[in-house]
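A reminder from the course coordinator: this example appears on the midterm review sheet, so study it carefully.

Given structure:
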């Protein structure tokens, strides 16, 4: 049975129907929801000191790192490593913005950021405007400032819109085929009685849920260590701004430790080499943090609650220094997850599947990682068939959320870059995980 590879899932917008019938099993479903660029996730370097130490930590060893505004060194460009592209020398640059290229995308040697930007612009039919009459020189800084000139440079470099449209047409064709198949059924067939979960799957799910609750409990006990959210609303007070930023980064540190603790308890994770453990955690951590964030979304008040009594809306995230370009997708993703009404078991299985993703950058033993992932894919598929026998699209919908997480991870890398431009200094553990180089 083939394993769930993230290259087996096609990126679609929230709410789109999918064309896989879960009756054929998880492998058939993942084969139907096929190939899209999930490589938008930022790749990471090989410095593992902080994360290596964290893997060796006991839960009680977690520390709250002080943060402070530190001016960027003059003349020093902000470095962000991208994943190595196959069969490339490694020193190629993006034809659009000059960042490190990851391969040929839509007929042009380009970076992941420009690839994703071009695709989104074409699919949405975006119309941008330039305050500089279309005369902006495109580089890594200006690509975020002027979308019109960035799109113009993409086209001048040779990016082809038909390459994007062909992928979209394939998706629409599959959706149409699914709709025709559904409408051809004269009357709904009686739902056959589903066999119960295999004993080993039931035991696995119960252990996963128990592990998650234990990790969450540790974070709850660490709550007093977090820098308090300031009562002052003064937007110009530097100390208040810094206190808000410290509050969020310390919550993030606790979340990272929680994820590491959970991963270390997954059967087989410690069988991997330390290098593969670090490679998996570096790229999955932000996605799991976003998945956990979505669990805490309250649609009634449009806020996210951490550790039971820390509740934040979009304005609070913005006050802490995050940009709306990152905040809005977080809340949109959280709302979409909330609409699925997942339970603790489904969240725990999704997290385990996310951790054991063999297509992560710098993973060496792909076969072992795939073998470790497969039982969780099978268990999720079986669990959904029993819990939701009438919803044959729930399994592929959940897999599509993993695709959305990859896209959000790419947006997050842009947010980290923006924090550097604001002279925000991240704690060492977060700098290591998110590959921020001073």
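Designed residues:
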């Amino acid at each position: 049975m083939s394993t769930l590879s993230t290259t087996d899932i096609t990126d679609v917008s929230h709410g789109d129907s999918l064309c896989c019938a879960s009756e054929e099993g998880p492998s058939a479903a993942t084969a139907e929801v096929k190939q899209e660029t999930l490589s938008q996730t930022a790749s990471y370097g090989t410095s593992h000191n902080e994360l290596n130490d964290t893997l060796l930590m006991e839960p009680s060893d977690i520390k709250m790192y002080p943060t402070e505004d530190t001016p960027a060194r003059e003349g020093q460009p902000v470095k962000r490593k991208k994943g190595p592209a196959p069969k490339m020398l490694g020193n190629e640059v993006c034809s659009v913005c000059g960042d490190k290229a990851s391969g040929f995308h839509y007929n042009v040697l380009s970076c992941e950021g420009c690839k994703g930007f071009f695709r989104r612009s074409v699919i949405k039919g975006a119309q941008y405007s330039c305050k500089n009459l279309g005369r902006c020189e495109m580089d890594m800084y200006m690509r975020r400032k002027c979308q019109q000139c960035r799109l113009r440079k993409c086209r001048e470099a040779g990016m082809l819109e038909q390459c994007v449209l062909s992928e979209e047409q394939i998706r629409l064709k599959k959706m149409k085929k699914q709709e025709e198949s559904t409408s051809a059924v004269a009357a709904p067939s009686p739902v056959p009685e589903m066999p119960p979960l295999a004993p080993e799957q039931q035991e696995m799910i119960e252990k996963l849920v128990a592990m998650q609750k234990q990790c969450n409990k540790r974070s709850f006990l660490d709550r007093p260590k977090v820098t308090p959210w300031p009562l002052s609303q003064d937007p110009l007070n530097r100390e208040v701004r810094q206190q808000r930023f410290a509050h969020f980064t310390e919550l993030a540190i606790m979340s990272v430790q929680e994820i590491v603790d959970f991963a270390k308890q997954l059967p087989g994770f410690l069988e991997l080499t330390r290098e593969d453990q670090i490679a998996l955690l570096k790229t999955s951590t932000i996605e799991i943090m976003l998945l956990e964030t979505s669990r805490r979304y309250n649609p009634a008040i449009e806020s996210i609650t951490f550790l039971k009594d820390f509740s934040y809306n979009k304005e609070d995230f913005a006050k802490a220094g995050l940009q709306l370009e990152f905040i809005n997708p977080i809340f949109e993703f959280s709302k979409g997850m909330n609409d699925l009404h997942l339970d603790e078991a489904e969240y725990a299985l999704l997290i385990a599947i996310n951790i054991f993703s063999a297509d992560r950058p710098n993973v060496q033993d792909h076969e072992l990682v795939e073998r470790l992932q497969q039982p969780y894919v099978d268990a999720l598929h079986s669990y959904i068939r029993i819990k939701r026998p009438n919803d044959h699209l729930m399994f592929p919908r959940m897999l599509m959320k993993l695709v959305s997480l990859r896209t959000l991870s790419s947006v997050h890398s842009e947010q980290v870059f923006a924090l550097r431009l604001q002279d925000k200094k991240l704690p060492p553990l977060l700098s290591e995980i998110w590959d921020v180089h001073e």
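The CA atoms of residues 326 and 411 lie 6 Å apart. The chain is about 50% helix and 5% strand.
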